Amino acid sequence: MRKDRYGRVIEDISSTDSQAAHNLALSIDERLQALVYRELNNAVAFNKAESGSAVLVDVNTGEVLAMANSPSYNPNNFAGTAKDTMRNRAITDVFEPGSTVKPMVVMTALQRGIVNENTVLNTVPYRINGHEIKDVARYSELT
């Protein structure tokens, strides 16, 4: 029983006998995790970005092989670390589907010969069935 400072019962806490747990298999690959973490940090620095997230997934099984965020922190010593830095952006933040699908579209277009590495793309907004399709930033052409 849980009581307040006057001895009044405020909660009746019952206990449950322990039970055998299920097996837990992690899919994170230590080598891939280190590689993804290093490359993400390099990409954030190269692009002068405030932050970045990367998730490496096995396309055949859906298993997460690596997940990284930048900036990051040491979970063994997080004294003085800002709460925002401890957030796992790959899980908690919302991303526009276009941002995650664009690399797949580009790879498919390259693979099928629709475009090549020198192709200039017109990114001016256009309309489909009365809906404007546009990028978040206004660029007339991209390579």
From TrEMBL:
What terms describe the molecular function in GO for this protein? glycosyltransferase activity; penicillin binding
Domain annotation Penicillin-binding protein transpeptidase: ranges:
52-135
Q: What does the UniProt entry say about where the protein is found?
A: Membrane
> What's the name of the protein?
Cell division protein FtsI [Peptidoglycan synthetase]
Give the residue range of the signal peptide. none
A GO term (biological process) for this protein? cell division
Pfam families linked to this entry: Transpeptidase (PF00905)
> InterPro entries, per this entry?
Beta-lactam/transpept (IPR050515), Beta-lactam/transpept-like (IPR012338), PCN-bd_Tpept (IPR001460)
**This protein's GO CC annotations:** plasma membrane
Recite the UniProt keywords alphabetically: Cell cycle, Cell division, Glycosyltransferase, Membrane, Transferase
Task: Tell me yes or no: is DNA-binding among this UniProt entry's keywords.
Answer: no
EC numbers listed for it are 2.4.1.129
